[in-house]
Structures are given as C-alpha cells and as structure tokens.
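G., the chain you wanted modeled:
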Amino acid sequence: MKRISYSRQSIDESDVQAVAETLKCDLLTQGSQITTFEEALKRYLNVDDVVVVSSGTAALHLSYLALNLRGTTVFTSPVTFAATANMLHSVGANVRFVDVDPKTGLMDVNNLEQVLKETAGDKSISKRAIVPVSLQGIPVNLPAIDNLAQYYGVSVVEDAAHSLGGEYVHDQQVYKSASCSHSDLAVLSFHPLKSICCAEGGAIATRDPDLAHTVRLLRNHGLMRQENSYLRTQKLWGYNYRMTDLQAALGVSQLKRLPFFLSKRKAIANRYYECFQGEPYCHFLTPTPKVLGSAYHLFVVHFESKEMRDAAYIFLQSHGIETHVHYVPLYKMELYKQWLGEFSLPGAEKYYQGCLSIPIYPDLSEEDQDYVLEILAKFCNQL
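Predicted structure as tokens:
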C-alpha cells in the first residue's frame, strides 16, 4: 500500500554536504555556524537580531523569561501546539485564551479587544502580554494586535512557528512574518515539518537589543565570560538551550532553499484549491480560505461535523494517507481543565469540529497528490 505523510522534511545533497563539512570543524557547538545562521536569518527577516536555540519550545521559554512574564496575564490562542501555553505555565504566567476565527483558526482580534477591555480595570492584574499564533503558514493579524498592544501597554510575542516565509500587507507595505515589525519578539521552529529543518531547533527574533542580550544570556546558563579571562559571571539563572553547529549548518543550507520550498508548497495548495471547487469535494469539504502571503505550512480542509472529519481521518489512514488535526483546543486537555477550569470558546469549537490537515510538503509528487485527491473523492462519494 502506498504511504503518504501529511508532512515531512526535504533534504538534498547540499544539506548533507553542509552537515558533513561541519563535522570536520574544530567546534561542533558554539562555533562559527551559529553566527552564520543567525546572520542569514537576520538578513532574510530584515530584523535587528536573531538568537538561535535548541528548539521552538526553548525559544518560547526564553522569550517569556526575557519579558519577565511571571504573574502576568497572557492572552493567547487555544488552537496551537501545547508548547505555546505550556511554557507560559512553566514561567508562572496566567493564561487567558482568546477565541479564534472559525475558518482560519487565527486569533479573533475583536475578542482580543473585548478581553483586554474586561481586564483593563482589574487591579489584581499587574501586567499583561499577548502571544498571537500564526497558523497553517498564515500570519496572524499583527498590525491590529499591535495597535491594541500599544493602546493597552502590553508586550507582544508572535508565535511564528508555522509561518517562516509567510507575508502580510499593512498600509500597502509587505512585511515578513517574524520580522518583529509589529511585535516585541517572534519565535520560530525548525522542527522537520516546518518551513525549514534543523532536525530540531528554534530562534528568537527581535528589534530590541536589551531583549536580545537577555535571551543570549539565558540560552547559555545565564553566564557571561569576562574578557581575556577564564572567569564567568552568573548574571541570570539560565539554561543550556544552545543549538549545535550541525543543526545550524543544516539551517543555513535549508534557508537557501526556502524560496524553492515556498513555491512548491504554493503550487500544491493551488492545485488543491482548484480541485476542491468541483465535484464531489465541494458538497462535503471546504478548504481554509486562500490567504495571500501564506507559507502553506499546512493545508487544512473543513468538514461539516466532527463525525464526518473523524470518518475521513480513518478512511484516509486505511488507504495509507496520514492526516492530522491541528489542533484540539488546549482547554479540552485534562491538565488545562485542572489549571483553568472548564469552558469553551465558540470559534475554537467550530474550527476544531471539522478541521483536517491533508498532505502538503515540498517533495509531495503530483502522482501522490493525485492519490490523495482520488481517495478523498472516494470518501466523499460514499457519503
């Protein structure tokens, strides 16, 4: 039986050579490849500073620590990978989930404004922050969120794990996701299924030199080396969140290939959009609305009900096609119920009920995409 993943990395000979050459270097960690990768990301994002770390989760953790979010009320999306909110719990922040658009899964700016207003006069809240999540490759509405953040005096951390290569337009100007044009910090992930792969890895982008300095300290145990000395000063309580030079070398190579990856993902997405307008798909599923500037990290279709979505998941799996649900709202998880109590948000519920991520990745062949479409058509025809 044919086996097709919903996503996977794309590694070619140039990537293999980049890692192999680095294996010959004197330093396999804290070497020159780290600086090379950080500088390449800075140029690509057109941002003042980038700090690469061992994972996207580490990037979230260090961002929250750098902003000193302990005791802060943080507004974020429940439709995200657990790390977004797990790391808020780990730093002692208080999470308040904001509802999402039921079609895109992105943070609902109107609901965000409402909860910011509700908490504005609460004297028990000393500080607030926003962690909007870019989803599927689509950048969240950062300009609108930034306007609210400026008005209410709160920090913004963009979780851009899904959207490296994504763009958005504001006042007729194009901005890249994670450029920190409308946020204090942006977090990237280089997990194998993301826009580029470092096996594991992440990065924090910022335009604030003080935040960049703090993140760099925290990345390396909070220690600062004294110039021309073996002595180190313990400046902060930090962690070993360093990226290796092997990961960085792969990242440098993959970043060069990013335009190719984006063009391939866009072509696959456009073919899905074209096919889903016709029979038999149009009666049973609807793709996430096409958004100019999406990096197409995922391709999500929506069924009319959870039962139909779950049946599609099982049917596709039985024919060797892996799909996924991104995501079950975090507030449905037992530990979150214990932490925050039981509640639901209508937009998040609607999004979750029918969403299914189907295969999209740069190396997905036209033949394999044909097979996905064929099996989806069979499923629709049996309904």
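The CA atoms of residues 100 and 271 lie 27 Å apart.

Shout if anything looks off.
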